[in-house]
Amino acid sequence: MKHLKPHLSNPFALITGFGLLVLFLGILVIPHAMATRYDRGSAAATSTLEALFKKEPEKPAFDREDYDRRMLAMANYASSTPTTTPRLWPVKDAPYPKEGALLPFNRIIAYYGNFYSTRMGVLGEYPEAQMLEMLRAEQRKWEAADPSTKTVPAINYIAITAQEAPGKEGLYMLRMPDSQIDKALEIAAKLENGIVILDIQIGFSTLERELPLLEKYLAMPNVHLGLDPEFHMIGEETPGHVIGSFDAADINYAAQYLADLVKEHDLPPKVLVVHRFTQRMVTNYEAIEPLPEVQIVIDMDGWGPPAKKINTYKAFVAPEPVQFTGFKIFYKNDLKPPSDRLLTPQDLLKLTPRPMFIQYQ
C-alpha cells in the first residue's frame, strides 16, 4: 500500500481519477447498458438494465385445501355409502404434488393415434382441422357435465408402435421419426393449454433403452408419457398374440426417470398414463409409488358395450388404487354389436372414482 500513499495524499490526483472513472462510465458502460436488446425468437425489445432488474414471475402457490377438496370429490362416494365400506379413494399417504400439477385441478381430454395410420385412432383418421374441432367439442361436453373442473386438451401420440415383424433390432417395435413427434407438438400448440402425451408400445425392448431416446421431448414442460403394457412382451410370444405386462418396478422406473427430469429442468409435474384392461397387465400395483413430480393415471383401455367397459373399470382399475384413473372411449369399436351407444361424460361421472383422464381413439 506504500506506493498508493502519494496519490491518496494528493487531492488533485483523486479528483482526476474520479473524473476519468465518470468519463469511462459515460462513454462505454452506460450506453451499452441502455442499448436495446432483442431476444432470439421474440419481437419484443427490452433494455439490458430492464432484463437485469426484472423479477421472475412468482409461481402460483400450491393450494392444499383445494387439492384435498377436489380429491374427495373425485372419489365420488355417495352420502349413503355405509361407513363400514372400505373407502379406497382418494389414495391414502399419496404425496402432494409439486406446484403446477394438472390433476385434479383439470381433467385431461386426449385424442389418441398415430399420423401414419387411419386405423390406430383419431389422430391419423381425420384431417387436422376436423380432428381439432372434434376434440374441442369433447372438451365442451365435459365442461358442461362437470363445470367445476376445467379441461386440458392432449395430443396423445403413439411414438413407438408394436410390430408383427421383428425389425432390424429384433424388438418387434418401430420408433417414429422426430418429424412426427414435432408434428404432434405443433398441433398441440394450436389448442388452448394443449399438451402432448407420448405413448410407447415397446415390444421386446425396455424402458431403460427407450426413455433416454425420448428425453429431449420429455424434458419439455408440456410433454408427458404413456405406457402400454399390452405391447410389452414377456416370454416368447410376439405382439398381438398375447397381452403383455408391466410390473410396478417398470412403472416406478419410468416415474423416477420423469421425476429426475422435472427436478433437473424445474418443470411442472409430469403425468404418467398406464393402460390397463386385464389383471396381469399391471402386476404388484401396491408397490407403485406416486411422486411429487409425477402424477400416475391408470387408464381403463378396454372396448365393448357400456356395461362391459364399466365392469372392466370396476374389476381392474377402481379396486387397485394408485393415484388417478382414466377411461378410454373407442369411437368405432365401442359401437360394435351388441353395443348401440357410446358412454357419455354423465355416465363416467357416476363412477367411483371419477376418471380425470379421458382418452378418445
Could you provide a short overview of the structure?
The protein is an alpha/beta fold.
CATH topology: TIM Barrel
Q: Count the helices. How many? A: 12
Class computed from helices, strands and strand pairing = alpha/beta
Q: Based on CA inertia axes, which overall geometry fits?
A: globular
Strand content range: 15-25%
Q: Number of DSSP strands?
A: 13
Helix content: 25-40%
Along the chain, the helix and strand elements come as HHEEHHEHHEEHEHHEEHEEEHEHE
Please state the second-level CATH architecture: Alpha-Beta Barrel
What distance lies between the first and last C-alpha atoms, to the nearest angstrom? 80 Å
The overall number of domains is 1
Mean of residue pLDDT? 87
Low-confidence stretches: 1-9, 11-15, 20-54
Largest sheet: 8 strands, parallel, barrel
Radius of gyration, whole Å: 27 Å
Widest sheet: strand order? 3-4-6-7-9-11-12-13
CATH C-level class: Alpha Beta
